[in-house]
Amino acid sequence: MKKNQRIMDFHHLKIFAAVYQYKSFTRASEQLNISQPTISEHIKNLEAEFSCRLFDRLGRRIAPTPKADRLYPEVIRLLDELEKLSEDFLYEDGLVRGNLIIGASTIPGTYILPALAARFRAAHPDTAFEIIINDTSKIADMVLNHEIFIGVVGARKDSPLLQYRPFSKDELVFVRARDYQSESLGTPLADGPVILREEGSGTRVNMLRLLALSGIEIKEERIAAILGSSASVKEAVRAGLGISCLSRLAVQDELARGEFIEIPLPRQNMRRDFYLIRYTKRTMPNHYQAFWDYLRQTSVSEAR
C-alpha cells in the first residue's frame, strides 16, 4: 500500500507541475491526456497531503498561491532527477531514447532544426521530436518557466538564469518586391512604408537596431503592418505592402528568382548569431543532454 501511495504522490506532483505551468486545469488535462475531473481530484488530494491550498479558484481562472510558488521549483527539480535516474540505466547501455520538445524562433525552427533533428534521429532511432516555433522572447520565457529544456533563438534575453551558447550565424537582408513602388520621394529605407515583425521577435530587434545605427528612425506613420511570422512578412512584401528585413535563409529563393530586390544598408554588419538556450541550474534528461551536445558540436552548414 505504501508503494502504491508513493507512485500516486509522484503522479500528483507531475499533475501539479502541469497545472502550475499552464495556470489552467483544462490545458493541463489536454497536455497530460487526463480528464479534467481527474486533474482536479489529484490537486485536491495533493492539497490535503500538504494541508494547504495550492491554487485559488477564481471563476474560470486559477492562480497559484505563495505555497505553490514555493513548491513548484522543488517539484521540477525532483521530477527532473527522477527522469534522469530512469534514463541513466538506458544510457549505460548506450541507448538515447525519448521525446524531445525543442523551442525555436522562426528561422532556426523552420530552416535549421528539422535537418539536424533528422540526422540526430538517424543515429538515435528511439527518439522523436516536437519543434515549437514562437518568437524569441516567448521561447526564452518557456525555458525560464521550465516548459522546455532547450531553445534556439535569435537574440539574447537579459537573465542570469539563462545560459546561452552561440549556435550558428545568420544574415539579415532588407528586401522589396520587384515591382514595388512607394509614394515616398525618398529612398525606401529612409521614407517608405515598413513591415515589422511582432514585439518579442529577434528579427524585429535586429532590424530596428541596424536602422538606428544608420540614423534611420521608424516613425509610427511609416509602419504599414506588424505581422507574426516570416512567412506572412514575405507575402506582405510580395504584395507590395512595404519593405522589410528578413533572414537570407527565408528569402534566398525569391532573391534568386528576381521576385525580391535586396536593399543595401551600407557600412552595417548584417550578420547575427543564433543561440542555444537552457536554464542555468536545471539538469537535463540524458536524451536532451545528448541532443544539446550534438547541437554544440555539429556544423550547421553540414545539415543544410
TrEMBL record:
Q: Name one GO molecular function term.
A: transcription cis-regulatory region binding
Tell me which residues make up the HTH lysR-type domain: 8-65
- Which Pfam families does the protein's record reference? HTH_1, LysR_substrate
Keywords in alphabetical order, please: DNA-binding, Transcription, Transcription regulation
Q: Does the keyword Lipid metabolism apply?
A: no
Family named by the database record: Belongs to the LysR transcriptional regulatory family.
Q: Per its UniProt record, what NCBIfam families does this chain match?
A: LysR_Sec_metab (NF040786)
Q: Write down what this protein is called.
A: Transcriptional regulator, LysR family
